[in-house]
Design brief:
24 helices; 2 strands
Length: about 500
């Protein structure tokens, strides 16, 4: 009963209720603008809320976090420009739906499934926090490395039928992600003597260029094509549609919770893994994945919002942030005199249940705000291309510049836009490049840690790898993913079916 009173703190306090709602509303539209990340918004908020009461500050920050993770899907569906990395997978089928005139229905499905995923993550946080955090602690550096490699190999799902093209694109992303100073030795890598490249290449500039600018360049060939009128007679999905996609949503949400609970991984990898899971397990989708399959919306949107609750698990129970935003939350809690970690639920159970209540409330606001304003928002894609293309380019320039206030990022963004245009022209998908950039640091750092912990002995590294059930499982998945894209696998499946 005491826990319930802490859970309902923000629900019965008008000021806290308003702050959660305001944060969620702002988060949706911050997340929808490429370059304005949730991490940036929450980090800026810390300086503004330093003198606030801790409850007020956390209510606003939780609302922005929950709304921002969902908000990236809006521009991903309408313009093929993911507002956040976690919306990359959403764009793969969301944008084709918008091009068919079904943007309203696509946003409606994305909203409802995001809310369902959010509730799964919150329930996991409230019920299974100790168990999931203990499982996350079993991951060694080699396991994080294998998990990241697994993510790179998932590009086979993002690149049509050609695993080779997907791997080439993913490796290009890894190469881009390693530009700058070595994180361990501070040696220059691929900087060619330019001081301006010491900090590496902003993945936001890469993402906006490959998705936004390349899309605008591709649309130049169709400037005279009439804009597709969007069907917005139905925004809220029917009960039958929700029931149809519910099993996939719950499965994808489970993936999101587990991936989100792994420190340093986040909702972007969770969304991509859930998309791959949906593509491999969905039989007879109405249209192929990548051409407007609604399952391709359900899986990533369920997973990335479920990862929010998952990311709070290690932060509140172990004092270890699950992603960049919860790392900022951790700092905010310390600033306000709190001590997240194993003793939090014993010494300050009020804070744990207060956070669970805030997340639940923010998820409800997400449903309300996510299903409103869609009719106005979908008018974006009905703008004539002669006006829309310059607007996309302007938005891309502003988004790239806003990250570091550096004109260099704008140049990188334009360069990667041209690269993305030619990649699409020759059948290479740009999603794997972004994934490679995001995962480069995770692979690099954990490979170093793994090999250093084994005294730089490759033989000892593999001996430990095969001695751990978790490592063996991840290694087996990597091998199966590679084999599943080879002619040998296809031949074996056909032979099994004939038998």
């Amino acid at each position: 009963m005491e826990a319930l009173s802490y859970f309902l703190t923000a629900w019965i306090d008008p000021q806290l209720l308003f702050l959660v709602g305001l944060g969620t509303f702002a988060g949706i539209y911050i997340g929808a603008i490429p370059g304005l990340s949730v991490t940036m918004a929450v980090s800026i908020l810390i300086s503004f809320t330093f003198a606030w009461d801790v409850n007020n500050a956390l209510c606003l920050m939780v609302g922005i976090f929950m709304g921002g993770v969902y908000g990236g899907s809006r521009t991903a569906i309408l313009l093929n420009i993911p507002g956040a990395p976690s919306a990359i997978a959403t764009a793969l089928d969301g944008f084709p739906l918008a091009r068919r005139g079904e943007a309203g229905e696509a946003i409606g499905i994305a909203t409802v499934m995001s809310v369902l995923g959010g509730f799964v993550g919150i329930v996991a946080l409230a019920v299974a926090a100790p168990f999931i955090s203990e499982f996350a602690l079993t991951f060694q550096p080699r396991d994080y490395m294998l998990l990241a490699i697994l993510g790179i190999l998932l590009v086979g799902s993002l690149s049509g039928e050609s695993l080779a093209k997907g791997v080439v694109a993913g490796c290009l992303g890894l190469l881009i992600g390693t530009v700058g100073l070595d994180p361990l030795t501070a040696e220059e890598r691929f900087t060619f003597g330019f001081v301006g490249m010491w900090n590496g290449i902003s993945f936001i500039a890469v993402m906006i260029g490959l998705f936004g600018v390349s899309e605008a360049l591709g649309q130049l060939q169709h400037v005279d094509t009439a804009a597709v009128k969007q069907k917005i007679s139905r925004i809220v999905p029917s009960f039958d549609a929700v029931r149809k996609y519910l099993p996939l949503s719950l499965q994808s949400s489970s993936i999101g919770v587990i991936i989100g609970a792994l420190p340093g991984v986040g909702g972007d990898i969770a969304a991509l893994m859930a998309y791959d899971f949906a593509k491999r397990t969905t039989r007879n989708p109405e249209v192929p994945f990548g051409e407007g399959a609604k399952e391709g919306l359900v899986a990533p949107e369920s997973a990335n919002n479920a990862a929010v609750g998952g990311a709070f698990i290690p932060m509140l129970t172990l004092g270890i942030p699950g992603d960049a935003v919860t790392a900022i939350f951790l700092g905010a809690l310390f600033i306000h005199g709190l001590n997240p970690g194993p003793m939090l639920m014993i010494e300050q159970p009020t804070m744990f249940w207060f956070m669970v209540g805030n997340l639940t409330l923010a998820n409800l606001f997400l449903l309300v705000f996510g299903l409103t304003g869609i009719r106005i928002f979908t008018k974006i894609v009905e703008i004539p291309k002669g006006i829309l293309i310059p607007l996309i380019l302007l938005l891309s320039v502003v988004g790239a510049y806003a990250v570091n206030n550096a004109i260099t990022d704008v140049y990188w963004m334009l360069g990667f836009g041209v690269l993305g245009y030619f990649m699409k022209l020759y059948g290479y998908q740009v999603g794997p490049v972004i994934l490679g950039v995001i995962l480069a640091r995770l692979i690099d750092e954990n490979w170093r840690r793994a090999i250093i912990s084994e005294q730089e002995s490759l033989g000892q590294f593999f001996a430990r790898l095969f001695a751990s059930p978790l490592s063996v499982s991840l290694f087996t998945l990597v091998v199966v993913l590679v084999l599943s894209q080879t002619p040998l696998w296809t031949w074996a499946r056909r032979r099994r079916v004939r038998a």
